[in-house]
Hints:
This protein is an alpha+beta fold. The protein has a single domain, classed as 2-Layer Sandwich (Alpha-Beta Plaits), CATH 3.30.70. The chain has helices at about 35-55, 55-60, 75-80, 100-105, 110-120; strands at about 20-30, 60-65, 90-95, 130-135. It has a four-stranded antiparallel beta sheet. The longest helix is centred in the N-terminal third of the chain and has 18 residues, at about 35-55. The protein is globular and about 45 Å long.
Amino acid sequence: MTGLSSPNWFEPGVAASAPAMINVVYCLRRRADLSLPQFLDYWGNVHAPIVLRNLRVLRLAGYQRIVPREHAMGPRVERRGISQPPYDGIAILGWESEEDFQRSLTDPEAVEVQRELACDEKRFIDIANSCRWVAEAIFHR
């Protein structure tokens, strides 16, 4: 994965014994005026490069994009008609320490990048119908 500094990023078995990373998980829904391919194209080719250019400033250990995939078993897994519609993507941002996470939200240079990202998100994300939270990954084997 591009831009990841830690070899432990999402590696079960390895990460399970590593110090806990702080993550922000962002479940995304696209704006109503965008098709899924348009949303994914913008996210991958415009927004993600902004994040990747600023990994150091944001003190990120990693940035992961999880995107929908067509699969024969998809309808069974998705429980269409029973649960809410699936998200259009998930972003996971990871910091190696509480200090890095705090600095990413308070350092003036990082705050400026956060503002740039927030403005850009309005171009492709339905923010009112998306959600995000601070999390910690717990791996089970």
